[in-house]
Design brief:
The protein is mostly helical. 75% of the residues lie in helices and 3% in strands.
Length: 257
């Protein structure tokens, strides 16, 4: 009984250790350093990789990396053309950035759970989470940015009068403007909340499963590989969904209803 309790406590401590952030407490609040650090690193990797490939691009003999970048670009561009019905130079670069950056942050979940914390320990970090998208502060922060863009596009395309009209007079006419306004506020606020929590929830669940598999000792190789292969699909789909919903929301904000 005592040995089982000891093993349970060890397992709980191991799980809690991997779920804690590397925190920096200041007078302005607490910053999750690991989230900021790894999200910046993945963002810089994305920018450098695409910029280097763009400068070295050739027509005669494209290499495998150029083919990969062109395939991603054409895929995102097709989605934007089919989904966004307005005109904006911002949408395609924004969609490409979201898809690749979110994918790279999600991809960190495929690194063995103990590797990044061990590296961080050598630099004085007692805790270090490898997957930024398992931090709701980041996912909700990104979705808040999308929310601000929705408001910006609505005002830019429709003007203040048209934007205010949709807030107060749709869908039941101006006589029911308080009811319309409440419904519209709930609808618009639900978009960033659901957008951020969907990404966070799926990646957090995946991270937790990897941690539980790591507790299985010799069995982790048997179970970890199939889950990692399946998780490649999960991280790609979540990046795609975040990108597509962003395009859809901005397209709706740019249309007259």
């Amino acid at each position: 009984m005592g040995e089982n309790l000891s093993e349970t406590l060890k397992a709980s401590s191991y799980i809690l250790h991997h779920l804690q952030h590397w925190e920096w407490k200041t007078s302005l609040g607490t910053f999750n350093v690991d989230t900021l650090l790894i999200s910046w690193i993945t963002g810089i990797v994305f920018l450098l990789f695409f910029s280097v490939i763009a400068r070295r691009a050739t027509v005669d003999r494209p290499g495998p990396f150029q083919n990969l970048v062109e395939m991603i670009y054409e895929f995102v561009d097709t989605q934007v053309k089919e989904t966004f019905h307005g005109r904006s130079r911002l949408i395609a670069p924004l969609a490409l950035t979201i898809f690749v950056w979110v994918f790279l942050m999600n991809f960190m979940d495929l690194i063995p759970v103990d590797v990044v914390p061990i590296i961080g320990h050598h630099f004085g970090a007692t805790h270090l989470k490898a997957v930024p998208t398992t931090d709701p502060n980041l996912t909700l922060g990104m979705s808040l940015t999308v929310f601000l863009l929705i408001i910006f596009f609505g005002l830019y395309v429709k003007g203040f009068k048209g934007f205010f009209y949709e807030l107060t007079c749709k869908p039941f006419g101006w006589k029911f403007f308080p009811f319309n306004f409440v419904l519209k506020v709930i609808e618009e606020c639900a978009k960033p909340i659901s957008l951020g929590l969907r990404l966070f929830g799926n990646l957090y669940a995946g991270e937790l499963i990897f941690i539980l598999i790591a507790l299985l000792g010799y069995w982790q190789g048997v179970l970890g590989l199939p889950w990692a292969i399946f998780h490649i699909l999960v991280i790609t789909i979540q990046a795609f969904i975040f990108m597509m919903l962003t395009i859809v929301y901005l397209s709706l904000a740019s249309e007259e209803h």
